[in-house]
Amino acid sequence: EHVLLLGRRKAAAVAARLAEEDPAFDGLVIGGDSMFELDGAIHGKPGTPEKALERWRQQRGRTGTLWSGHWLVDRRGGHDGGEGVGAVKSAEVTFVDDLGDDEIEAYIASGEPLQVAGAFTIDSLGGAFIERIDGDPSTVIGISLPVVRALSRELGCPWPGFWNRPGAAS
């Protein structure tokens, strides 16, 4: 899928840059991307207030699918990263149906929806306009924690190793 390919390219680009700039880097590189699907049309970041307004008028009161692609590259212990591992996760997002143009325009004026897939967030101002989410909410935020956990385990890196707390596995 397209979001997986974009996530893979992002992770590979960061891993290559780290290999040049910080050869001692010892960890996992995570790349990801998201797109929003409504009525079979795929939407990335709107980029302009006009496109964001058009999208919000289309999606209010409706349900669409947010797709997030994830890719992990292993750079631990001098590992060259290899191919890495990846997965796609989706969640259904339903928008409130009583959203007026005044609220949409105020939201767009905040700048928040211009640089995010689907022109919305759930973890900030846009969260009030989401009626429900069917699926993993962290997927909608942009990175599915259950997916990253599964992929890191596939690479032999236990999830507690990510915790930056006393007693966490390293």
Helix content: 25-40%
**Contiguous uncertain segments of 5+ residues:** none
What's the story with the biggest beta sheet?
Answer: 5 strands, antiparallel
* Count of folded domains: 1
Class from secondary-structure proportions: alpha+beta
Principal-axes geometry comes out as: elongated
Q: Strand arrangement, largest sheet?
A: 2-1-3-4-5
Count of individual helical segments: 5
Mean pLDDT: 92
Task: Tell me what you see in this structure.
By secondary structure, the chain is of the alpha+beta class. Helices cover 32% and strands 27% of the residues. It contains five helices and five strands, in the order H-E-E-H-E-E-H-E-H-H. It has helices at residues 2-21, 49-59, 101-109, 137-141, 145-154; strands spanning 28-38, 41-43, 63-74, 81-95, 130-134. A five-stranded antiparallel β-sheet has the order 2-1-3-4-5. The longest helix is centred in the first third of the chain and has 20 residues, at 2-21. It is elongated, with a radius of gyration of 18 Å. The mean pLDDT is 92.
Write the layout of secondary structure elements.
Blueprint (H helix, E strand, L loop, with lengths): L1 H20 L6 E11 L2 E3 L5 H11 L3 E12 L6 E15 L5 H9 L20 E5 L2 H5 L3 H10 L16
Helix pairs in contact: 2-3
